Every structure is written in structure tokens, then in C-alpha cells.
């Protein structure tokens, strides 16, 4: 079930976990101070707690101030490391891949724990007061334990960064994230097509009435479409709504956003507010965006400045994993009914051929001179075909012919042609077009 756009943006915000950990540290500091006062005043704690865990006011303040300054230094080093990683992502991979590292919960937890440790020590320093009689404190022991935890987390963060900065791990993480998004949004395919409502009463209403068009009020990317809320609003207003733009599309002011069929006056602002428009495209339940990120890393690897076809081949393999999973699913649902099974919302959805085109066409355009890249694409199309129901294979066959047409003017060596034709033959037989192999071979 789709979450609200605000909740999704909050969870992917860089401040989400650090703020939570900071607030937790504040209340933990107050709690440990109260526990300290209770234990050391209500019983003979000095005889029951080992003396090594107790400190006087001067030693307590020294320990806490030292730990606070050390944690602030470690936090600064962590931020510097993050900036180095971001620079690497910008120059080597893709600006769109930055979000994966920034929104990664491991990165946010590291900063959150450092922030929490610093706030914990500062709050303890603020409330520790020197008294007339000599008093011992237990809270510096808790602060030392938190400092040791922060040191362990710092070592983990260094290992985490060295792992994330490897392109293979980055591609794997993007692939896993996109596949999770597919499982949340799409249903497993049973070789059926989504039920179209055109044979029902709604068909006549949509074909005979002129819709009311709702325009966008701001430019930006369609970041999120709250379909559940649209269905509820359409039911309450007794209307049918068609979303004219797909998630991820860029729109300008006065761009048609919604078409509404209704017999009475509608609240345009209420309907418009259910589509979130932002200046940046964000990965809020956006399968296409995940595919584009993998594709962009592959295209950049083929640039003359980087010239790394092995990374491009790795990207093609990851795209094959994504599209194999997508081929086994029904894809996005275009029609949404209310509780009485009346059509309320129509959403534009991409065809499977569109996903193939988004995934592979840019790589083919810039890598068609490299035989490894082209054979990898043909091999991956064969893998996708093996995982596809019959109604998907025509789209793959259509894209196969498009691929062959794109490379027909390229000059390859004879051994390269044999290798390519061997992969192409396997693909044709997998698609059920084995007899047409001679028409498309190189």
C-alpha cells in the first residue's frame, strides 16, 4: 500500500534519523541523571557499586567534556568523508545515485549516534552541579560506554564507506531497492491483462462528455500520485478522474494535470493537491527512476573520459535482473475502482516495451561499437524472455528488431559476428521466432 508523500519524504530526509537519535539522547541523559540521584541517595551505593565506576564532580566534568569534544571531532571527520564520497559519486557514477548514499539508513544512523553521544554529554555537563558536600556520580560511566559505542560505529562507518563506494555494491543496492519497490506496487503476473472498464457504464460517460481539465500551478517533476486519496475524493465528488501525467514526468505551469468527468462542480485545488510536484525527481515508489539510475551509470562508464565497458556490462546485467522481475509481474495498475466497483481513477502507465527502451537504448546508442556491450544486451534480452509470459514476448521481439536496426551499420570482425549471431539465435528461439532468425542476423 502506498504511503503518503510527506511520510515518504520524511523517511528519506537526511535529518530524520539524526533528529530521532538526538531527541532520544536528550531524554536518556535526563533519565540517567535521575537514576544516578536515586541510586546514590536512596541506598548505600558507594559500598555496593565498585569504586572504579564512580567519579567526583571534577573528574566527571573532565570525562564528559573530553568525550563531547572527541565526538564532535569524529562527527566532523564523518561529514568530511561523506563529502568525499559525494564527490566520487558525482564524477564517477551519477548525480542521481547520491540519494542512495544520503538516504541510506546506515549512513544516517552513524551521524545519529554521534549526534546523540554529543548531546548526551553536553546535557550531563549542563546538569552536573558542584555541591557543598563531596558527591560521587555514576553517569560518567554511561558516557564512557556511549563513547566506546561511537568508536565502534566509527570503524563500521569507514568499512561501510569503502563498501558503498564500489560500483558493484552501488548497483546491487539500487537493484534491490527497485525490486522492493516493484513488489510493493505490482502484482505477480498470471498472464492476464488488467481489467479495462470500457465495456461498463463508464465508457459511455467518458466518450460522450467533455472533461474538466485541471492545470498545474507550478513547474517541476511529478513526484508522487496519491491514488488512494484520488479514489476517495472522486467517490465523494461522484466523478471520474484521469491523471494526464505519469510519475517522474516534468511539467510546466498550466500543463494539463487531471481530466475530470463530473456532473457537478468540483474542487480543483483538492484534487490538484493530491499530486505532489517537486523541483527534483525523488525515488518515491518510482520503478522507472531506479532503472534510469542503473542505465545512467552504464552510459557514463562508456564515456571517453572513463572508458570502462566492464562496468557497462555489469549495469546491463543488473538491468536484466530488474526487467526479468518486471516481466513476471502485471505492471502498474491503470484503473482504480471505489468500494462499489465503479471506475474512479485512470492512471497512465508505461508499456513493457517502454521499460526496455528506457533501460537499454541509451547504452546501445553510446556502446554499439563495443561487441561486449551489444552481446550482453542480446544475452540479457534472452534471460528476460525466459522469465516472461507469452504476452510479454512480442514487446521483447519488437525491441530485438529495434536493437538490430540500431547496429546494422556497424562494422564487426567475423568472430565477433559469429558470437553475436549465436546469442541472437538463442534469443529468437526463446521468443518463438526461430524461423525469422535469418532475417535479423548480422
Brief summary:
Helix content is 63%, strand content 8%.
What can you see in these coordinates?
With 442 residues, the protein is of the alpha+beta class. 63% of the residues lie in helices and 8% in strands. It has helices at 5-11, 16-42, 45-48, 57-93, 98-102, 105-127, 139-164, 167-185, 201-208, 227-237, 268-272, 287-301, 309-327, 352-367, 371-386, 390-407, 414-430, 437-440; strands at residues 212-215, 220-225, 239-243, 250-251, 256-262, 275-278, 335-337, 343-347. It has a five-stranded mixed β-sheet, sandwiched between helices. The chain has a three-stranded antiparallel β-sheet with strand order 4-2-6, with no helix packed on it. Helix 2 (16-42) runs parallel beside helix 6 and helix 15 (371-386) runs antiparallel to helix 16 (390-407). The longest helix has 37 residues, at 57-93. It is flat, with a radius of gyration of 29 Å. The two termini are 47 Å apart.
SSE topology:
Layout: H1 5-11, H2 16-42, H3 45-48, H4 57-93, H5 98-102, H6 105-127, H7 139-164, H8 167-185, H9 201-208, E1 212-215, E2 220-225, H10 227-237, E3 239-243, E4 250-251, E5 256-262, H11 268-272, E6 275-278, H12 287-301, H13 309-327, E7 335-337, E8 343-347, H14 352-367, H15 371-386, H16 390-407, H17 414-430, H18 437-440
Parallel strand pairs: 3-8
Antiparallel strand pairs: 1-5, 2-4, 2-6, 3-5, 7-8
